[in-house]
Amino acid sequence: MREIESGDVMDMRDETFANVIDEINARQSQTRLSVVLAILFGIAGFLVGKALGGAAPVLGVMAFLPGMLIGKWLDGYRRVSVLYYDLELDAEAAYGRLVGAFETLTLCAGRWHVAAGGKIQDLTTWKRNAGASMLVDKKPTTLASTLPQVVRSNVTPPSIQVGRQVLYFMPDLVLVKDGNRYGAVGYADLRTQFAPTNFIETGRVPSDAEVIGHTWAHPNKSGGPDRRFKNNRQIPICRYEALRLSSATGLNELLEFSRTNVSQAFCQALSAIAQLHQDSSRQTLSAD
Known about the structure:
Layout: E1 2-3, H1 18-28, H2 33-52, H3 56-78, E2 81-83, H4 89-106, E3 111-119, H5 123-128, E4 134-140, E5 143-145, E6 151-153, E7 158-162, E8 165-169, E9 174-178, E10 181-185, E11 191-200, E12 210-216, E13 234-246, E14 252-257, H6 263-287
Parallel strand pairs: 2-6
Antiparallel strand pairs: 1-3, 3-4, 3-14, 5-7, 7-8, 8-9, 9-10, 11-13, 12-13, 13-14
């Protein structure tokens, strides 16, 4: 099994958006006042309670919550970046197509992030895995329209959870979140690939999946059931669609959907936005 994993998010850096990413990361590195004030208020409450005699733990706990709330309110200004967009008509239309194509992806009954994969190269493993040619490690993932907590904006972007990272498709860049660190991939640098794929589904078959055939939990070389195994049940083979997102700066993620013909519109919308940005850059250079 080989991991399918992106590189360090700090290496995902487009110089066009360097100032934005630097500001977000700088704000994230600031100390959380919600924690500091909660502790200080708690200590103060404890000391006051102790001075009054016997009520120290109660007052300490009671003071902890106001300190945390006040600190959280202050963090909402100190640790948050504002991204405001005033899109031209063509850019607004292109982004609208991206949002629409993303909504189609969210309607798939099965949506997975693939973390690792590898070819099966021996007969024993092949028999134990229903005759599959590859093993994959994948888990259900989340597709949603949401902003990261550290950003305020007049746009709510499509977002995809890809393992420990989250991709936010803003109008001008793909914001990549990894814990408390952020990187960015420009649309011109984003590469997409999609293709149908057959998957031996040992779990629940998604309601919208196309079943194209069946195999056995333990097949023999000819494809029939191996009679040496008890309860050798038939397993459906489903037709899914794989979508890869990558960049030269280290983005490398693989997604899978339970329906086919759903990724093309999304990839085309991404390409259209990239083309708009490239045309805008050329026009700016010509004007200079």
